[in-house]
Amino acid sequence: MRGARPEVGRNRAGGGRGARNTVVTRRGRPPRTDRERLLDAAERAIRRAGPQVSLERIARTAGVTKPALFAHVGDRRALVHGLAERLLTRIETAVQTALVGREGRAALEHMIRAQLDTIAADRHVYAFVNGAGAGDTTLASTLTFARRAAAPLAAGIAEARVRAGEDPAPAEPWGIAIIGMLHMVGLWWLGDRDRQVDAARLAAQLTDLLWNGLAPPIPNERS
Amino acid sequence: MRGARPEVGRNRAGGGRGARNTVVTRRGRPPRTDRERLLDAAERAIRRAGPQVSLERIARTAGVTKPALFAHVGDRRALVHGLAERLLTRIETAVQTALVGREGRAALEHMIRAQLDTIAADRHVYAFVNGAGAGDTTLASTLTFARRAAAPLAAGIAEARVRAGEDPAPAEPWGIAIIGMLHMVGLWWLGDRDRQVDAARLAAQLTDLLWNGLAPPIPNERS
DNA sequence: CCATAAAGCTACCGCGAGTATAAAATCGGC
DNA sequence: GCCGATTTTATACTCGCGGTAGCTTTATGG
């Protein structure tokens, strides 16, 4: 039970932010820092030193030592989880802001745009959360993999578009997009609900999405 | 210069498979193993012990020791790269087999199906290549992230489909699919060609794909 | 003022990636 | 048929990082 901090507050009545004045008297040394402050520091450290920062360095950026970091946020997994949570919140906020007053295709486009902008702003944190933390092998290799898998797909799409008299420029991002879609759905399918969804059905559903698009039914927001 | 093996063959004229009898005489101790055999062993080890196998264990599965593994395939990065290469080849073969005699929507569906089946057959190797090797944090957290990001999206899609009188079942995989697409394209966009493609253009292209689908232009194979 | 409680720091452990160095195995030359 | 050259392999190590044990410090309540 490491991460379970006792919720009893009021030792000098509020060290900064949250400051809930619970009247439960609380003995002992008051904490010098809290979880949020440590997560802030972690983001700063990641931004400064890249996604491969060691926990030691993160702790020192926060002005504490490793055990304090562990006591407050838990192990590496928990740290990643905490940062992911905040990043997701930021993305959700941006998306919802982008959606107000729009619907249909415009809503979709602004949703995508908001997501891209947000991860671009926090690129290092995004990379850290997605596994660049432990052994840089991960992210670069996934990208290499995707680029190679996408190449023939992109070639086919480009050819088809040229033949249809359309601009072939989107072929490359489309190839990456389709591979990314298959990648994530594959992980989800393998890891989560092994045989609850069978492959044929899943393939048919993905084909529907890719072939027809979201257009006929309304894509996202309520009308 | 570690991975650069001299290509001179013929020491006892063929230790097993490749056996090319180059007449270039070759001195010194004959190699007990070769790169391909080591990659085979690595796959076996990964299948048996999961994606977090240590290099030590991989080497011992092959019947050699770590330095031999390093001498033949290079460091961990190189190992991942080699395995990814083989896996991609397998996928490409499966896809091409699935594509013969089909076109349009059927081609797309069978392509997806082939890809899913192939990664399902080599799930552990797939996970290893995609970063579960170093510190298991990676893959699970990416999935958690994706599932959380996909949830509101899926809810919106399900609602829209119900309102349009359609089956809401595909909403969940579609949500994951869209998030996976944005994830991979985001990584590609951030990492590869920082500002060569601007966000607005990219968002528009992705919107085109998602909204209209591939249907109007022919998706993949030549007609 | 002292006992008690909580938090932090120093110093450590274990493990896995990657490497220096010595031993083993083969072939050409004599 | 032995010797030295040459190449591979194994033993045994270093290094760095994630994670932890136990002593020390700082506060409060009596």
Descriptive account of the structure:
2 copies of one chain form a homodimer. By secondary structure, chain A is mostly helical. In chain A, about 65% of the residues lie in helices and about 0% in strands. In chain A, helix 1 crosses helix 2. The N and C termini of chain A lie far apart (about 45 Å). Residues about 1-20 and about 220-223 of chain A have low confidence and may be disordered. At the A-B interface, helix 4, helix 5, helix 6, helix 7 and helix 8 of A face helix 4, helix 5, helix 6, helix 7 and helix 8 of B. The first copy, chain A, binds a DNA duplex (30 and 30 nucleotides) through helix 3.
Cα distance, first to last residue of chain A? 47 Å
Give the biggest sheet of chain A.
Answer: none
Q: Strand-and-helix sequence of chain A, N→C?
A: HHHHHHHHH
Oligomer: homodimer
The value of Rg of chain A in angstroms is: 23 Å
In helices, the fraction of residues of chain A equals 55-70%
Low-confidence stretches of chain A: 1-22, 218-223
Strand share of the residues of chain A?
under 5%
Number of helices of chain A: 9
Class by helix and strand content of chain A? mainly alpha
Shape of chain A: elongated
Count of individual beta strands of chain A: 0
Nearest-integer average pLDDT of chain A? 84
Q: Which chains have the largest interface?
A: A-B, 97 and 97 residues
Summarize this structure as a short list of keywords or feature phrases.
homodimer, disordered N terminus, DNA-binding, mainly alpha, 223 residues, 0% strand
